[in-house]
Amino acid sequence: MDEEKCVFCMIINGNIPAKKVYEDQLVLGILDINPASKGHVIMIPKKHYGNIYEVPMNEFLQLCNLTRAIGYAIMLALAPNNVEMLYTKELTKGNITPHALIHLIPRYDDDTVNHVWQPQKLIESDFTAIENAIKDAIEGVKNADAESTTEKPIEKPVNETKKPEAPGKIDEDKPIVNINRKVVVF
Ligand SMILES: [Zn+2]
After folding, report:
1. How far is the CA of 55 from the centre of ligand 1 (A)?
2. What is the pLDDT of residue 152?
3. Model confidence over 139-154: pLDDT tens digits?
4. Positions of the region Disordered (predicted)?
């Protein structure tokens, strides 16, 4: 989505009002207009990223640090049992969030927040396959990084095949296009 059409960018630019609880050069914290519970805050990078996986590391670290800090402030202010942190593209069904942000959701004895799932039944070999797939992906990213920093591209062959994606088994048809691989750092 373009920044011009992003409701969160409009809030950041002051075109839509919001209850701002925190603001600095990189990050804005506002009360969620459809709160899950009392004190539900969303922490937003001021620059438009459609997905948390696009946020460059320094901005991400700043966002995470401030998310925890504001969570602490919510605990001081409202005395919930806890404050949960959540990243999702779709907080409620069909309600896609166009801008990367982290939810801070205070929890109370009488709240109606409910994240539940039915635990999946997996056998040992399933767990092993998943474990290995993730480890292979990590190694693939590390190796790609190592290659890109140590190898100096001299002359690119004319018929250069596409640069190898890190985790060897990426399905080309799957939409990972919204994820900025370059910001992922191990
Ligand atoms: Zn935006």
Report:
1. 12
2. 54
3. 998 888 888 776 555 5
4. 144-173
Q: What residues sit around ligand 1, an ion, with C-beta below 5 angstroms?
A: 6, 8-9, 48, 99
Q: What is the mean pLDDT of residues 44-58?
A: 94
Ligand 1 centre and the CA of 46: distance in Å?
Answer: 8
Parse the chain into domains and list their residue ranges: 3-107, 124-183
Q: Residue 163 — very low, low, confident or very high, per pLDDT cuts 50/70/90?
A: very low
CA of 28 to the centre of ligand 1 (A): 12
* Region 3-107: CATH code: 3.30.428.10
Ligand 1 centroid distance, CA of 134 (Å): 30
The three state secondary structure string of the chain is CCHHHCHHHHHHCCCCCCCEEEECCCEEEEECCCCCCCCCEEEEECCCCCCHHHCCHHHHHHHHHHHHHHHHHHHHHHCCCEEEEECCCEEECCEECCCCCEEEEEECCCCCCCCCCCCCCCCHHHHHHHHHHHHHHHHHHHHHHHHHHHCCCCCCCCCCCCCCCCCCCCCCCCCCCCCCHHHCCC
